[in-house]
Amino acid sequence: MSSILIKGGRVIDPGAGRDATADVLIERGKIVEVGEVTSTADEVIDARRRIVCPGLIDVHVHLREPGNDETETIATGVAAAVAGGFTAVVCMPNTHPPVDTPAAVEFVYRQSVRAALARVYPVGTVTKGRSGAELAELAALRGADVVGFSDDGDPVADAEVMRRALQYARMLDLPVITHAEDRTLSAGGVMHEGAVSARLGLPGISAESEAAAVARDVTLAEETGARLHVAHVSTAGAVEAVRRAKDRGVRVTAEACVHHLTLSDTCLLERDDDGILKFDTSYKMSPPLRSPDDVEALRKGLRDGTIDCIVSDHAPHPLEAKAVEFTEAAFGVIGLETSLAVVVTELIAPGVLTWLEAVALLSTNPARALGLPGGTLEAGSPADVTLIDPECEWTIDASAFHSLSRNTPFDGKEVKGKAACTIVGGEVKTAPVR
Fold it and tell me: Is 313 an active-site residue?
């Protein structure tokens, strides 16, 4: 394995409180030195006018394998990841069949090793078959090296099942990742319930359906002492519930999606050239796009530490699942190849976040939240590094994605900031030519 010297970049390492021009030396897949490096290396990367940071980590991704490999495979998903600057992804278990056995976990790891691009960390299910009824063999899944448990895509509706899952997860020292939704309050809805849904005549999903579920789960986490990670927080009420729980010392972390931080339900009021409402299904996701007030609450949660991670919730769907009436369309959007640029354009450039804060939310905090390697450039750590061109201006083109799917609300958006180089384990990784 060759050594790499990254010269003269703006090195941002939140864990070390570093934001300064420096060199980074990599040898045998590890970070060896950060600072003014005088040693030689087999390969030298000129990082002037680049940001050099710990490899980006997306802790909420759907890779669709096993099953549904027409919409995404592990190979195409990790190709999209390295193209977007992500050195590691955590994949959810709502596949067909679900990742509820050690054999399924082994399949995910085997496919990721074969792809040899970004690191892949699988999550196992909370319940067998994601049925919400009987707990999966959590200890066996832990033995197969899952990094957490989740029935994501569906909530664990039964509070007693969730309580027992948290109890077992605490003994196994792994987090439960909760899809916080009370289906008695959201059933039948296709977008956020509010003034826009009333105007459009579309059935709504109330903000309370999320806030109530988060309140329940943080209460159970407090009782059991377990680690709880709240997925795709989208409402002001949920942010406040997590904030209060953290103030009480509950072991809870939370994430927010790029689309929930930058778009709102008002996007559905867009009209075509003839003045007709588009009902654009690229804006249909679960949780739905919320109100502008919710967006502002999420951004405040980023700044005050209530929300720990920014994620994509990369959820690929085929064209035919989206090219239908809004009420019939599948929920979900993709984001591995757009997240970094949208964060730079919509959050860093306007001053919502600093670069140091953004790197923490995209790398350091995700690693800490789920106990993953990486998220740091400290000597001895894995040489997972992302180089970013912060001034690169480009237009998002879904037709050029490495992902097999195209369901993004950002197609055609002019953005700034792009991954210039993705290094995983001391090796430069480049997505295959499409």
Answer: yes
